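[Q] Does anyone have a clean structure-token version of this?
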Amino acid sequence: MLMKNSEEKRNTAWRTVLTVSSVLIIIVAVFFVVKLFTDNPLEGTWVSDEGDITLSFTDERDSVIVRDGSISVTTECSVDKSTKVLTVYVSDEAVREQAEDTGGEISETQIQDLLDHIQGTYEYNIENTTLTLTEREYGSQMVFEKN
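[A] Here you go.
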């Protein structure tokens, strides 16, 4: 060793190693705690079993992109991780704005029909790569696979 005969140098080196490793452990622990409590469990793209609807959740904001092949629409949602509840909101104003943004290619009726399939409050369950949305009022289920 470089510091064979100096007990003081060995103590200083040992304290430095312990301090650096302790700081790294704390940083990693804080990262995982923050990721655990702030992460959106639904984040990603989910394709329905029937293949007719695709849901894309982003972590940045409370919104979901709903696609059915030809139409892609963004709408608001909220995810309550403690009760495992997903609520999808549809506002007439947002539907109107998105229809206008397409320049007449997609009508308000087409957008509203697509969003009617997903609008509502659901209890969600994620097992491996399968997302199950169970409607709270009627109990009907939609099953999605992670893409």
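[Q] Thanks! Anything notable?
[A] The first strand starts at residue 44 and ends at 48.
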